[in-house]
Amino acid sequence: MNKFFSVKDVPNIGEIVNEALALKAAPNAHEALGKHKMLGLVFLNPSLRTRMSTQKAALNLGMNVIVMNMDKDGWALETQDGVVMNGTTVEHIREAAAVMGEYCDILGLRSFPKLKDREEDYSEDLFNKFMNFCKVPVVSLESATRHPLQSLTDIITITENWSKPGKPKVVLAWAPHVKALPQAVPNSFSEWMCQAQAEGLIDFTVVHPSGYELAEEFTPGANISNNLTESLADADFVYVKNWSSYKEYGQVYPVSENWMLDNEKLALTNDAKVMHCLPVRRDLELASEILDGPNSLVVKEAGNRVWAAQVVLKRMLEELS
Ligand code: CP
């Protein structure tokens, strides 16, 4: 594996999930693999879970880690070619990425979308340039359109929390928010769940109010609905997440019905486990009574971020050595 950007970088979901769960059972079994290897984690945006879990994963593999908060500590980055840099930007991504590639054997990058120009965000221009210029394997720590470490974590969490016969029904449910949020987490969750469905592991539904359709490329084979009550029936896992509109890009439409998951709505499900990538706004996106109750997986899910990161780094290190 020389990049981890989308589900397309993983040949088989079932296999990588089993490998991650084996690492969870024996976290230090491969600590010689990363000896004298350097991981650089480059953040253009804030993070708690991604930052700490990926560092821990690298340390479990014996790697050294450098964290670079470009948004706070780095030079202002120019990403466009052919501009005279006589404004606020100080360093071009061509040099910055190449230099970081000199220091590190593997790099991670977090780069959120601006939510102004859909074509620009969905081109993943900044991420692609970074991957191209740094010349070392790159792990996405969340890009403009996807959050693959989160999605791999989510399928690991679903797998280890499902012990009944047959396939679980997994529902991605839109939730309210006060801000315009990217589509990266739901896009990514959906493309991973669609692939898991294609491998026969789950049944997958996406439910959202009209106007919040995800781009079709992320939902192949998904059951898509605007009816929350119907979709929650028989659900085994409900993945709660807000996102802004893709169609009217970055807009937040008013929604009159109550879409926040609470215990009353949870009672419609098959005693579903509830997931969220975090951070979550309590009693706006998701009711406290669920977050504090027995059906919430959110903390265990965040814990599993380590094993998702560790299996990806392990696969990259195996190709380096
Ligand atoms: N879920 C997630 O990626 O969390 P952070 O933004 O805190 O890293």
From TrEMBL:
Enzyme class per UniProt: transferase
Pathway stated in the Swiss-Prot or TrEMBL entry: Amino-acid biosynthesis; L-arginine biosynthesis
Keyword Magnesium appears in the UniProt entry: no
Domain Aspartate/ornithine carbamoyltransferase Asp/Orn-binding span(s) in chain numbering: 204-314
Any one GO molecular-function label of the UniProt entry: amino acid binding
EC annotation from Swiss-Prot or TrEMBL: 2.1.3.11
InterPro entries cross-referenced by the UniProt entry: ArgF'-like, Asp/Orn_carbamoyltranf_P-bd, Asp/Orn_carbamoylTrfase, Asp/Orn_carbamoylTrfase_sf, Asp_carbamoyltransf_Asp/Orn-bd
Assigned keywords, A-Z: Amino-acid biosynthesis, Arginine biosynthesis, Transferase
Record-listed carbamoyl phosphate binding positions: S47, L48, R49, T50, W75, R110, H147, P148, L149, Q150, C277, L278, R305
Catalyzed reaction equations: N(2)-succinyl-L-ornithine + carbamoyl phosphate = N(2)-succinyl-L-citrulline + phosphate + H(+)
Annotated transmembrane regions: none
One Pfam family matching this protein: OTCace
Gene3D superfamilies for the chain: Aspartate/ornithine carbamoyltransferase
Domain Aspartate/ornithine carbamoyltransferase carbamoyl-P binding: 4-160
Binding site for N(2)-succinyl-L-ornithine: E142, H177, K241, R281
Coiled coil: none
Keyword Amino-acid biosynthesis appears in the UniProt entry: yes
Example of a GO biological process term: L-arginine biosynthetic process via ornithine
Function: Catalyzes the transfer of the carbamoyl group from carbamoyl phosphate to the delta-amino group of N(2)-succinyl-L-ornithine to produce N(2)-succinyl-L-citrulline. Is essential for arginine biosynthesis.
Classification via PANTHER family: ORNITHINE CARBAMOYLTRANSFERASE, MITOCHONDRIAL, ORNITHINE TRANSCARBAMYLASE, MITOCHONDRIAL
Subunit structure: Homotrimer.
Family: Belongs to the aspartate/ornithine carbamoyltransferase superfamily. SOTCase family.
Protein name: N-succinylornithine carbamoyltransferase
Source organism of the structure: Rhinopithecimicrobium faecis
Lineage of producing organism: Bacteria, Pseudomonadati, Bacteroidota, Sphingobacteriia, Sphingobacteriales
